[in-house]
Model the fold of this input.
Amino acid sequence: MNPAVEFRNVTKVYRRRFSSQRIAALSDVSFDVHAGEVCAFLGPNGAGKTTTISILMGFFYPDSGEVRVLGYEPGDVRAKRQIGFLPENFAFYKYLDAEKLLSLHCVLAERGNGNRDAIIHDLLTKVRLEQFKGLKISKYSRGMVQRLGVAQALLGEPKLLVLDEPTSGLDPAGRKDVRELISSLRAAGNTIFLSSHILSEVEQICDRAVIIDRGKVVRAGTMNELLGSSGRVEIVVNQLPETLEAALSGWSASMERGARGVKISIAEDKKREAIESLWAAGCDVISLAPIRGSLEELFLTLVTGEGAAA
Amino acid sequence: MKIWAIATNTLRAFLRDKVLIVIFIVLICFVLLMMTPLLAYKAITTAENAGSMQALVLGIVAVVMSLLSGGGSLLAAWAGASSVATEMRSGTIQAVMARPVKRWQFLAGKYLGVLLLMGCYVPLMFGISYLLAWMGGEHIQAAPWVLIVYPIVRYAIYAAIAILLVTFMHSAVAFGIVILISVFAGLVAPKAPLTAHIPAWIRAPIYAVLPSTGLLSESRFLSITRTSLQHTTWLQHLTTLAYGLDYALVCFLFAVWSFHYRSLRRD
Done:
Protein backbone atom coordinates (compact mmCIF):
# COMPACT_ATOMS: atom_id res chain seq x y z
CA MET A 1 0.00 0.00 0.00
CA ASN A 2 1.32 3.46 -0.91
CA PRO A 3 1.93 5.84 1.98
CA ALA A 4 -0.72 8.54 2.41
CA VAL A 5 2.00 11.19 2.59
CA GLU A 6 5.51 10.93 1.14
CA PHE A 7 8.23 13.51 1.61
CA ARG A 8 11.45 12.76 -0.25
CA ASN A 9 14.51 14.97 0.25
CA VAL A 10 12.43 18.12 0.47
CA THR A 11 14.26 21.40 0.80
CA LYS A 12 12.73 24.82 1.21
CA VAL A 13 14.69 28.04 1.48
CA TYR A 14 13.09 31.40 2.23
CA ARG A 15 14.58 34.31 0.41
CA ARG A 16 14.07 37.84 1.62
CA ARG A 17 13.10 40.34 -1.03
CA PHE A 18 15.79 42.84 -1.96
CA SER A 19 18.29 40.95 0.19
CA SER A 20 20.73 38.12 -0.27
CA GLN A 21 19.63 36.61 3.06
CA ARG A 22 18.58 32.96 2.83
CA ILE A 23 16.85 30.99 5.57
CA ALA A 24 16.76 27.24 5.16
CA ALA A 25 13.35 26.23 6.51
CA LEU A 26 13.65 22.58 5.47
CA SER A 27 16.81 20.66 4.57
CA ASP A 28 16.52 17.30 2.89
CA VAL A 29 13.40 16.28 4.79
CA SER A 30 12.15 12.75 4.17
CA PHE A 31 9.41 10.82 5.94
CA ASP A 32 6.27 8.79 5.25
CA VAL A 33 2.86 8.72 6.84
CA HIS A 34 1.25 5.34 6.30
CA ALA A 35 -2.41 4.94 5.49
CA GLY A 36 -4.61 4.33 8.53
CA GLU A 37 -2.17 5.59 11.15
CA VAL A 38 -2.04 8.62 13.40
CA CYS A 39 1.28 10.34 12.88
CA ALA A 40 2.50 13.17 15.08
CA PHE A 41 4.69 15.89 13.65
CA LEU A 42 6.73 17.39 16.45
CA GLY A 43 9.29 20.10 16.76
CA PRO A 44 10.09 23.29 18.64
CA ASN A 45 8.83 26.65 17.39
CA GLY A 46 10.54 27.59 14.13
CA ALA A 47 11.55 23.99 13.41
CA GLY A 48 9.74 23.96 10.04
CA LYS A 49 6.46 22.26 10.98
CA THR A 50 4.18 24.88 9.44
CA THR A 51 6.36 25.04 6.32
CA THR A 52 6.11 21.26 5.96
CA ILE A 53 2.33 21.30 6.42
CA SER A 54 2.03 24.21 3.98
CA ILE A 55 3.99 22.24 1.36
CA LEU A 56 1.85 19.19 2.03
CA MET A 57 -1.30 21.26 1.47
CA GLY A 58 0.07 22.88 -1.69
CA PHE A 59 0.28 26.38 -0.19
CA PHE A 60 4.06 26.55 -0.63
CA TYR A 61 6.25 25.01 -3.30
CA PRO A 62 9.42 23.18 -2.24
CA ASP A 63 12.72 24.22 -3.80
CA SER A 64 13.68 20.61 -4.36
CA GLY A 65 12.55 17.12 -3.47
CA GLU A 66 9.36 15.23 -4.12
CA VAL A 67 6.08 15.26 -2.22
CA ARG A 68 3.09 13.00 -2.83
CA VAL A 69 -0.19 13.28 -0.98
CA LEU A 70 -2.60 10.36 -1.45
CA GLY A 71 -0.67 9.60 -4.61
CA TYR A 72 -1.00 13.09 -6.11
CA GLU A 73 1.01 16.28 -6.23
CA PRO A 74 0.28 18.60 -3.29
CA GLY A 75 -2.49 21.05 -4.20
CA ASP A 76 -4.01 18.68 -6.76
CA VAL A 77 -7.79 18.93 -6.39
CA ARG A 78 -8.07 15.12 -6.57
CA ALA A 79 -5.98 14.95 -3.39
CA LYS A 80 -7.71 17.92 -1.77
CA ARG A 81 -11.11 16.23 -2.21
CA GLN A 82 -9.90 13.62 0.27
CA ILE A 83 -8.18 15.92 2.77
CA GLY A 84 -9.55 17.66 5.82
CA PHE A 85 -7.34 20.47 7.08
CA LEU A 86 -7.27 22.41 10.33
CA PRO A 87 -4.69 25.21 10.17
CA GLU A 88 -2.96 26.56 13.24
CA ASN A 89 -4.87 29.58 14.65
CA PHE A 90 -7.75 28.91 12.34
CA ALA A 91 -9.18 32.07 10.82
CA PHE A 92 -12.78 32.28 9.64
CA TYR A 93 -15.03 34.81 8.01
CA LYS A 94 -16.21 36.39 11.22
CA TYR A 95 -19.34 37.89 9.70
CA LEU A 96 -20.73 34.39 9.03
CA ASP A 97 -22.34 32.07 11.52
CA ALA A 98 -21.30 28.43 11.86
CA GLU A 99 -24.11 27.17 9.63
CA LYS A 100 -23.32 29.59 6.78
CA LEU A 101 -19.59 28.93 7.05
CA LEU A 102 -20.05 25.18 6.82
CA SER A 103 -22.53 25.68 3.98
CA LEU A 104 -19.86 27.67 2.08
CA HIS A 105 -17.33 24.92 2.75
CA CYS A 106 -19.85 22.31 1.55
CA VAL A 107 -20.02 24.11 -1.80
CA LEU A 108 -16.23 24.42 -2.00
CA ALA A 109 -15.81 20.76 -1.01
CA GLU A 110 -18.39 19.63 -3.58
CA ARG A 111 -20.39 17.93 -0.84
CA GLY A 112 -23.98 17.51 0.20
CA ASN A 113 -26.03 19.07 -2.57
CA GLY A 114 -29.16 17.31 -1.38
CA ASN A 115 -28.47 16.74 2.31
CA ARG A 116 -26.34 19.74 3.18
CA ASP A 117 -28.43 20.68 6.22
CA ALA A 118 -28.14 17.17 7.65
CA ILE A 119 -24.34 17.14 7.14
CA ILE A 120 -23.99 20.52 8.86
CA HIS A 121 -26.25 19.45 11.72
CA ASP A 122 -24.22 16.26 12.26
CA LEU A 123 -20.90 18.11 12.25
CA LEU A 124 -22.08 20.79 14.65
CA THR A 125 -23.50 18.15 16.98
CA LYS A 126 -20.22 16.23 16.87
CA VAL A 127 -18.26 19.28 18.04
CA ARG A 128 -21.02 20.45 20.45
CA LEU A 129 -21.77 23.69 18.63
CA GLU A 130 -25.32 22.88 17.51
CA GLN A 131 -26.89 25.37 19.93
CA PHE A 132 -24.57 28.14 18.71
CA LYS A 133 -25.07 27.58 14.99
CA GLY A 134 -26.84 30.90 14.48
CA LEU A 135 -24.29 32.94 16.42
CA LYS A 136 -21.80 35.05 14.45
CA ILE A 137 -18.29 33.57 14.57
CA SER A 138 -16.95 36.93 15.80
CA LYS A 139 -18.85 36.22 19.04
CA TYR A 140 -17.26 32.79 19.49
CA SER A 141 -14.65 32.06 22.14
CA ARG A 142 -11.21 30.76 21.10
CA GLY A 143 -12.23 27.21 21.99
CA MET A 144 -15.48 27.43 20.02
CA VAL A 145 -13.60 28.65 16.95
CA GLN A 146 -11.21 25.72 17.31
CA ARG A 147 -14.12 23.28 17.55
CA LEU A 148 -15.66 24.85 14.46
CA GLY A 149 -12.29 24.37 12.77
CA VAL A 150 -12.39 20.69 13.65
CA ALA A 151 -15.95 20.48 12.27
CA GLN A 152 -14.98 21.98 8.91
CA ALA A 153 -11.94 19.69 8.73
CA LEU A 154 -14.24 16.68 9.11
CA LEU A 155 -16.54 17.90 6.33
CA GLY A 156 -16.65 15.53 3.39
CA GLU A 157 -15.46 12.48 5.30
CA PRO A 158 -11.79 12.96 4.44
CA LYS A 159 -9.38 10.04 4.12
CA LEU A 160 -6.49 12.17 5.34
CA LEU A 161 -6.77 14.70 8.15
CA VAL A 162 -4.05 17.28 8.57
CA LEU A 163 -4.41 18.94 11.94
CA ASP A 164 -2.10 21.73 13.01
CA GLU A 165 -2.38 22.08 16.80
CA PRO A 166 -5.91 20.61 16.99
CA THR A 167 -6.27 21.01 20.76
CA SER A 168 -4.88 24.52 20.93
CA GLY A 169 -7.22 26.82 22.86
CA LEU A 170 -9.45 24.00 24.06
CA ASP A 171 -10.33 23.32 27.68
CA PRO A 172 -9.63 19.84 29.14
CA ALA A 173 -13.11 18.58 28.14
CA GLY A 174 -12.65 19.88 24.61
CA ARG A 175 -9.20 18.27 24.38
CA LYS A 176 -10.68 14.98 25.52
CA ASP A 177 -13.38 15.29 22.84
CA VAL A 178 -10.74 15.84 20.16
CA ARG A 179 -8.67 12.90 21.40
CA GLU A 180 -11.72 10.65 21.28
CA LEU A 181 -12.61 11.96 17.85
CA ILE A 182 -9.11 11.18 16.58
CA SER A 183 -9.29 7.70 18.08
CA SER A 184 -12.65 7.05 16.41
CA LEU A 185 -11.35 8.34 13.07
CA ARG A 186 -8.35 6.05 13.35
CA ALA A 187 -10.66 3.15 14.14
CA ALA A 188 -12.59 4.02 10.97
CA GLY A 189 -9.38 3.73 8.95
CA ASN A 190 -8.59 7.42 8.43
CA THR A 191 -5.04 8.69 8.27
CA ILE A 192 -4.23 11.56 10.60
CA PHE A 193 -1.18 13.79 10.46
CA LEU A 194 -1.10 16.14 13.40
CA SER A 195 1.21 18.71 14.82
CA SER A 196 1.07 19.38 18.55
CA HIS A 197 3.14 20.68 21.43
CA ILE A 198 1.19 18.64 23.97
CA LEU A 199 3.43 15.59 24.01
CA SER A 200 1.46 13.63 26.62
CA GLU A 201 -1.54 13.69 24.27
CA VAL A 202 0.57 12.71 21.31
CA GLU A 203 1.91 9.75 23.28
CA GLN A 204 -1.65 8.63 24.00
CA ILE A 205 -3.13 8.86 20.53
CA CYS A 206 -0.36 8.52 17.96
CA ASP A 207 1.10 5.41 16.31
CA ARG A 208 4.09 7.17 14.84
CA ALA A 209 6.00 10.42 15.31
CA VAL A 210 8.30 12.51 13.17
CA ILE A 211 10.48 14.93 15.13
CA ILE A 212 11.93 17.87 13.27
CA ASP A 213 14.41 20.46 14.45
CA ARG A 214 15.94 23.35 12.53
CA GLY A 215 14.49 22.06 9.30
CA LYS A 216 15.85 18.53 9.63
CA VAL A 217 14.16 15.31 10.66
CA VAL A 218 15.99 14.25 13.81
CA ARG A 219 13.96 11.10 14.58
CA ALA A 220 11.04 9.26 13.02
CA GLY A 221 9.43 5.96 13.87
CA THR A 222 6.60 4.19 15.63
CA MET A 223 5.98 5.02 19.25
CA ASN A 224 7.40 1.64 20.25
CA GLU A 225 10.55 2.31 18.27
CA LEU A 226 10.92 5.78 19.71
CA LEU A 227 10.05 5.05 23.33
CA GLY A 228 10.99 1.35 23.39
CA SER A 229 12.08 -0.40 26.57
CA SER A 230 15.00 1.09 28.43
CA GLY A 231 16.07 -2.43 29.51
CA ARG A 232 15.11 -1.71 33.11
CA VAL A 233 12.07 -2.36 35.28
CA GLU A 234 10.64 -0.55 38.27
CA ILE A 235 9.61 -2.61 41.30
CA VAL A 236 7.65 -0.95 44.09
CA VAL A 237 7.72 -2.68 47.49
CA ASN A 238 6.21 -1.70 50.84
CA GLN A 239 9.52 -1.91 52.70
CA LEU A 240 13.15 -2.81 52.07
CA PRO A 241 15.45 -4.35 54.70
CA GLU A 242 18.95 -2.87 54.82
CA THR A 243 20.56 -6.28 54.24
CA LEU A 244 18.73 -6.65 50.94
CA GLU A 245 19.51 -3.07 49.93
CA ALA A 246 23.21 -3.92 49.85
CA ALA A 247 22.53 -7.02 47.76
CA LEU A 248 20.41 -5.09 45.26
CA SER A 249 23.10 -2.44 44.97
CA GLY A 250 25.40 -5.20 43.83
CA TRP A 251 23.03 -5.75 40.85
CA SER A 252 23.28 -2.07 39.84
CA ALA A 253 19.84 -1.30 41.22
CA SER A 254 18.88 2.18 42.34
CA MET A 255 16.45 2.75 45.19
CA GLU A 256 14.21 5.62 46.15
CA ARG A 257 12.20 5.69 49.38
CA GLY A 258 8.85 7.48 49.28
CA ALA A 259 5.49 7.70 51.06
CA ARG A 260 4.04 4.81 49.05
CA GLY A 261 6.98 2.49 49.59
CA VAL A 262 10.37 1.92 47.99
CA LYS A 263 10.92 2.18 44.25
CA ILE A 264 13.65 -0.07 42.91
CA SER A 265 14.98 0.39 39.41
CA ILE A 266 16.84 -2.66 38.18
CA ALA A 267 18.07 -4.27 34.95
CA GLU A 268 15.34 -6.36 33.28
CA ASP A 269 17.43 -9.55 33.35
CA LYS A 270 17.77 -9.30 37.14
CA LYS A 271 14.07 -8.79 37.89
CA ARG A 272 13.24 -12.46 38.65
CA GLU A 273 16.14 -12.84 41.13
CA ALA A 274 15.32 -9.48 42.72
CA ILE A 275 11.65 -10.31 43.21
CA GLU A 276 12.41 -13.76 44.62
CA SER A 277 14.84 -12.14 47.08
CA LEU A 278 12.26 -9.50 48.04
CA TRP A 279 9.57 -12.11 48.65
CA ALA A 280 11.99 -14.26 50.60
CA ALA A 281 12.77 -11.25 52.81
CA GLY A 282 9.03 -10.77 53.50
CA CYS A 283 8.58 -7.70 51.34
CA ASP A 284 5.23 -7.07 49.70
CA VAL A 285 5.66 -6.31 45.97
CA ILE A 286 3.13 -3.60 45.12
CA SER A 287 3.89 -3.23 41.40
CA LEU A 288 6.27 -4.22 38.64
CA ALA A 289 6.45 -2.28 35.38
CA PRO A 290 8.94 -1.85 32.56
CA ILE A 291 10.58 1.55 32.52
CA ARG A 292 9.69 3.23 29.24
CA GLY A 293 11.04 6.57 28.06
CA SER A 294 8.55 9.42 27.68
CA LEU A 295 8.09 11.34 24.49
CA GLU A 296 8.86 14.52 26.37
CA GLU A 297 12.22 13.16 27.50
CA LEU A 298 13.02 12.01 24.00
CA PHE A 299 11.93 15.33 22.52
CA LEU A 300 14.02 17.33 24.97
CA THR A 301 17.01 15.07 24.41
CA LEU A 302 16.82 15.46 20.66
CA VAL A 303 15.98 19.12 20.55
CA THR A 304 17.75 20.71 23.50
CA GLY A 305 19.86 17.95 25.01
CA GLU A 306 18.12 18.51 28.37
CA GLY A 307 16.54 15.09 28.49
CA ALA A 308 19.91 13.42 28.26
CA ALA A 309 21.20 15.45 31.15
CA ALA A 310 18.12 14.58 33.19
CA MET B 1 -20.57 27.12 -8.46
CA LYS B 2 -17.35 27.42 -6.42
CA ILE B 3 -16.42 30.68 -8.15
CA TRP B 4 -19.90 32.05 -7.50
CA ALA B 5 -19.74 30.97 -3.82
CA ILE B 6 -16.39 32.77 -3.40
CA ALA B 7 -17.73 35.83 -5.26
CA THR B 8 -20.88 36.18 -3.16
CA ASN B 9 -18.86 35.67 0.00
CA THR B 10 -16.48 38.41 -1.17
CA LEU B 11 -19.42 40.75 -1.78
CA ARG B 12 -20.79 39.88 1.67
CA ALA B 13 -17.42 40.83 3.19
CA PHE B 14 -17.36 44.13 1.28
CA LEU B 15 -20.85 45.07 2.41
CA ARG B 16 -19.71 44.67 6.01
CA ASP B 17 -16.41 46.44 5.51
CA LYS B 18 -16.08 49.44 7.79
CA VAL B 19 -14.06 51.43 5.24
CA LEU B 20 -16.78 50.94 2.65
CA ILE B 21 -19.53 51.89 5.07
CA VAL B 22 -17.68 55.11 5.91
CA ILE B 23 -17.19 55.87 2.19
CA PHE B 24 -20.90 55.27 1.60
CA ILE B 25 -21.90 57.61 4.45
CA VAL B 26 -19.51 60.30 3.15
CA LEU B 27 -21.02 59.86 -0.32
CA ILE B 28 -24.55 60.29 0.96
CA CYS B 29 -23.54 63.37 2.97
CA PHE B 30 -21.84 64.82 -0.09
CA VAL B 31 -24.91 64.28 -2.27
CA LEU B 32 -27.15 65.83 0.36
CA LEU B 33 -24.75 68.78 0.56
CA MET B 34 -24.86 69.27 -3.21
CA MET B 35 -28.64 69.19 -3.21
CA THR B 36 -28.79 72.41 -1.22
CA PRO B 37 -27.31 74.74 -3.87
CA LEU B 38 -29.25 72.93 -6.58
CA LEU B 39 -32.55 73.55 -4.82
CA ALA B 40 -31.51 77.11 -3.96
CA TYR B 41 -30.64 77.88 -7.59
CA LYS B 42 -33.93 76.40 -8.71
CA ALA B 43 -35.83 78.51 -6.20
CA ILE B 44 -34.23 81.79 -7.25
CA THR B 45 -34.41 81.17 -10.99
CA THR B 46 -36.42 83.82 -12.82
CA ALA B 47 -37.06 84.47 -16.50
CA GLU B 48 -34.21 87.02 -16.49
CA ASN B 49 -31.48 84.85 -14.94
CA ALA B 50 -32.61 81.45 -16.34
CA GLY B 51 -29.54 81.15 -18.60
CA SER B 52 -26.93 81.78 -15.95
CA MET B 53 -28.77 79.63 -13.40
CA GLN B 54 -28.92 76.72 -15.82
CA ALA B 55 -25.15 76.99 -16.34
CA LEU B 56 -24.61 76.85 -12.57
CA VAL B 57 -26.90 73.83 -12.22
CA LEU B 58 -25.12 72.04 -15.06
CA GLY B 59 -21.78 72.82 -13.45
CA ILE B 60 -22.79 71.33 -10.12
CA VAL B 61 -24.27 68.20 -11.68
CA ALA B 62 -21.15 67.72 -13.82
CA VAL B 63 -18.86 68.02 -10.76
CA VAL B 64 -20.92 65.51 -8.77
CA MET B 65 -20.97 63.06 -11.68
CA SER B 66 -17.21 63.33 -12.15
CA LEU B 67 -16.57 62.84 -8.46
CA LEU B 68 -18.85 59.81 -8.29
CA SER B 69 -17.21 58.36 -11.36
CA GLY B 70 -13.71 58.98 -10.01
CA GLY B 71 -14.75 57.64 -6.61
CA GLY B 72 -15.85 54.46 -8.37
CA SER B 73 -12.38 54.09 -9.88
CA LEU B 74 -10.80 54.43 -6.43
CA LEU B 75 -13.31 51.97 -5.03
CA ALA B 76 -12.59 49.41 -7.77
CA ALA B 77 -8.83 49.68 -7.22
CA TRP B 78 -9.19 49.45 -3.44
CA ALA B 79 -11.65 46.55 -3.59
CA GLY B 80 -9.46 44.66 -6.08
CA ALA B 81 -6.37 45.06 -3.93
CA SER B 82 -8.03 44.33 -0.61
CA SER B 83 -10.16 41.38 -1.76
CA VAL B 84 -7.13 39.10 -2.03
CA ALA B 85 -4.92 40.86 0.53
CA THR B 86 -7.51 40.59 3.31
CA GLU B 87 -7.74 36.83 2.83
CA MET B 88 -3.95 36.52 2.92
CA ARG B 89 -3.64 38.74 5.98
CA SER B 90 -6.34 37.02 8.01
CA GLY B 91 -5.34 33.52 6.94
CA THR B 92 -8.86 32.66 5.74
CA ILE B 93 -7.35 31.80 2.36
CA GLN B 94 -5.83 28.61 3.82
CA ALA B 95 -9.20 27.15 4.79
CA VAL B 96 -10.56 27.92 1.31
CA MET B 97 -7.52 26.67 -0.59
CA ALA B 98 -7.49 23.44 1.42
CA ARG B 99 -10.72 22.62 -0.42
CA PRO B 100 -10.71 21.26 -3.97
CA VAL B 101 -10.46 24.80 -5.33
CA LYS B 102 -7.91 25.71 -7.98
CA ARG B 103 -5.95 28.89 -7.56
CA TRP B 104 -7.47 30.46 -10.68
CA GLN B 105 -10.95 29.65 -9.37
CA PHE B 106 -10.20 31.46 -6.12
CA LEU B 107 -8.88 34.51 -7.98
CA ALA B 108 -11.82 34.46 -10.42
CA GLY B 109 -14.21 34.35 -7.45
CA LYS B 110 -12.51 37.34 -5.84
CA TYR B 111 -12.55 39.27 -9.13
CA LEU B 112 -16.21 38.47 -9.72
CA GLY B 113 -16.93 39.60 -6.15
CA VAL B 114 -15.32 42.97 -6.89
CA LEU B 115 -17.35 43.26 -10.11
CA LEU B 116 -20.52 42.46 -8.15
CA LEU B 117 -19.66 45.28 -5.76
CA MET B 118 -19.11 47.65 -8.67
CA GLY B 119 -22.35 46.35 -10.15
CA CYS B 120 -24.06 47.65 -7.00
CA TYR B 121 -22.15 50.94 -7.09
CA VAL B 122 -22.81 51.85 -10.72
CA PRO B 123 -26.65 51.87 -10.53
CA LEU B 124 -26.30 53.94 -7.35
CA MET B 125 -24.03 56.41 -9.15
CA PHE B 126 -26.37 56.38 -12.13
CA GLY B 127 -29.40 56.99 -9.89
CA ILE B 128 -27.74 59.87 -8.03
CA SER B 129 -26.72 61.53 -11.31
CA TYR B 130 -30.29 61.30 -12.59
CA LEU B 131 -31.68 62.53 -9.28
CA LEU B 132 -29.42 65.57 -9.20
CA ALA B 133 -30.11 66.42 -12.82
CA TRP B 134 -33.84 66.11 -12.19
CA MET B 135 -33.62 68.29 -9.10
CA GLY B 136 -31.81 70.88 -11.14
CA GLY B 137 -34.64 70.75 -13.66
CA GLU B 138 -32.53 69.05 -16.31
CA HIS B 139 -32.52 65.66 -17.99
CA ILE B 140 -29.53 63.46 -18.82
CA GLN B 141 -29.55 62.83 -22.53
CA ALA B 142 -27.19 59.86 -22.81
CA ALA B 143 -28.55 56.31 -23.17
CA PRO B 144 -28.79 54.57 -19.74
CA TRP B 145 -26.92 51.45 -20.88
CA VAL B 146 -23.87 53.56 -21.71
CA LEU B 147 -23.86 54.98 -18.19
CA ILE B 148 -23.90 51.45 -16.76
CA VAL B 149 -21.72 49.38 -19.10
CA TYR B 150 -18.90 51.87 -19.69
CA PRO B 151 -18.09 52.47 -16.01
CA ILE B 152 -18.32 48.75 -15.21
CA VAL B 153 -15.78 47.93 -17.95
CA ARG B 154 -13.53 50.75 -16.73
CA TYR B 155 -13.78 49.54 -13.15
CA ALA B 156 -13.08 45.99 -14.34
CA ILE B 157 -9.72 47.23 -15.68
CA TYR B 158 -8.80 48.98 -12.44
CA ALA B 159 -9.80 45.95 -10.36
CA ALA B 160 -7.85 43.55 -12.61
CA ILE B 161 -4.69 45.69 -12.39
CA ALA B 162 -5.05 45.91 -8.61
CA ILE B 163 -5.51 42.14 -8.30
CA LEU B 164 -2.48 41.55 -10.54
CA LEU B 165 -0.30 43.88 -8.44
CA VAL B 166 -1.48 42.51 -5.11
CA THR B 167 -0.32 39.02 -6.07
CA PHE B 168 3.26 40.20 -5.54
CA MET B 169 3.12 43.38 -3.45
CA HIS B 170 1.39 44.97 -0.48
CA SER B 171 -2.21 46.02 -1.06
CA ALA B 172 -1.59 49.69 -0.14
CA VAL B 173 1.27 49.90 -2.64
CA ALA B 174 -0.85 48.13 -5.27
CA PHE B 175 -3.69 50.59 -4.71
CA GLY B 176 -1.31 53.55 -5.02
CA ILE B 177 0.21 52.21 -8.23
CA VAL B 178 -3.23 51.73 -9.83
CA ILE B 179 -4.07 55.34 -9.05
CA LEU B 180 -0.70 56.52 -10.41
CA ILE B 181 -1.20 54.45 -13.56
CA SER B 182 -4.63 55.94 -14.17
CA VAL B 183 -3.34 59.49 -13.63
CA PHE B 184 -0.31 58.85 -15.82
CA ALA B 185 -2.48 57.36 -18.57
CA GLY B 186 -4.48 60.58 -18.61
CA LEU B 187 -1.30 62.67 -18.72
CA VAL B 188 0.16 60.91 -21.76
CA ALA B 189 -3.14 60.84 -23.70
CA PRO B 190 -2.73 62.21 -27.28
CA LYS B 191 -4.37 65.57 -26.58
CA ALA B 192 -3.28 66.02 -22.99
CA PRO B 193 -1.91 69.60 -22.68
CA LEU B 194 0.42 68.96 -19.73
CA THR B 195 2.68 66.58 -21.64
CA ALA B 196 2.36 68.15 -25.07
CA HIS B 197 6.09 68.99 -25.05
CA ILE B 198 7.06 65.30 -24.78
CA PRO B 199 7.75 63.80 -28.22
CA ALA B 200 4.97 61.65 -29.63
CA TRP B 201 7.32 58.66 -30.10
CA ILE B 202 7.70 58.54 -26.31
CA ARG B 203 4.11 59.31 -25.41
CA ALA B 204 2.47 56.98 -27.94
CA PRO B 205 3.94 53.65 -26.72
CA ILE B 206 3.39 54.59 -23.06
CA TYR B 207 -0.20 55.48 -23.86
CA ALA B 208 -0.65 52.20 -25.71
CA VAL B 209 0.59 50.16 -22.76
CA LEU B 210 -1.26 52.02 -20.02
CA PRO B 211 -5.02 51.50 -19.65
CA SER B 212 -6.70 54.19 -21.71
CA THR B 213 -9.64 54.45 -19.40
CA GLY B 214 -10.38 57.93 -20.71
CA LEU B 215 -11.92 56.18 -23.70
CA LEU B 216 -14.12 54.21 -21.37
CA SER B 217 -15.15 57.19 -19.32
CA GLU B 218 -18.91 57.58 -19.32
CA SER B 219 -18.34 61.32 -18.98
CA ARG B 220 -17.80 61.29 -22.74
CA PHE B 221 -21.50 60.56 -23.02
CA LEU B 222 -22.77 62.04 -19.78
CA SER B 223 -24.22 65.07 -21.42
CA ILE B 224 -27.20 66.96 -20.19
CA THR B 225 -27.53 69.08 -23.30
CA ARG B 226 -28.40 67.28 -26.48
CA THR B 227 -26.17 69.63 -28.51
CA SER B 228 -23.04 68.46 -26.69
CA LEU B 229 -23.95 64.77 -26.90
CA GLN B 230 -21.35 62.96 -28.93
CA HIS B 231 -22.57 60.77 -31.67
CA THR B 232 -21.06 57.30 -31.35
CA THR B 233 -21.78 54.41 -33.67
CA TRP B 234 -22.40 50.87 -32.43
CA LEU B 235 -19.11 49.80 -33.96
CA GLN B 236 -17.28 52.46 -31.96
CA HIS B 237 -19.05 51.34 -28.78
CA LEU B 238 -18.17 47.72 -29.47
CA THR B 239 -14.55 48.48 -30.28
CA THR B 240 -14.08 50.61 -27.18
CA LEU B 241 -15.75 48.10 -24.87
CA ALA B 242 -13.86 45.18 -26.44
CA TYR B 243 -10.62 47.09 -25.85
CA GLY B 244 -11.55 47.55 -22.18
CA LEU B 245 -12.60 43.96 -21.64
CA ASP B 246 -9.51 42.69 -23.41
CA TYR B 247 -7.25 44.87 -21.23
CA ALA B 248 -9.01 43.62 -18.07
CA LEU B 249 -8.79 40.01 -19.24
CA VAL B 250 -5.06 40.25 -20.00
CA CYS B 251 -4.39 41.79 -16.57
CA PHE B 252 -6.49 39.09 -14.91
CA LEU B 253 -4.66 36.31 -16.76
CA PHE B 254 -1.32 37.77 -15.66
CA ALA B 255 -2.72 37.84 -12.11
CA VAL B 256 -3.67 34.14 -12.37
CA TRP B 257 -0.17 33.30 -13.60
CA SER B 258 1.50 35.30 -10.83
CA PHE B 259 -0.85 33.94 -8.13
CA HIS B 260 -0.18 30.38 -9.24
CA TYR B 261 3.48 30.66 -8.25
CA ARG B 262 3.18 32.59 -5.00
CA SER B 263 3.18 31.10 -1.52
CA LEU B 264 -0.17 31.26 0.24
CA ARG B 265 1.25 32.32 3.56
CA ARG B 266 -0.23 34.74 6.05
CA ASP B 267 1.07 38.20 5.22
Remarks:
- The interface with chain B takes residues 54, 57-61, 77-78, 80-81, 83-85, 87, 89-93, 95-96, 104-105, 107-110, 152 of chain A (CB under 8 Å).
- The mean pLDDT of chain A is 85.
- The radius of gyration of chain A is 24 Å.
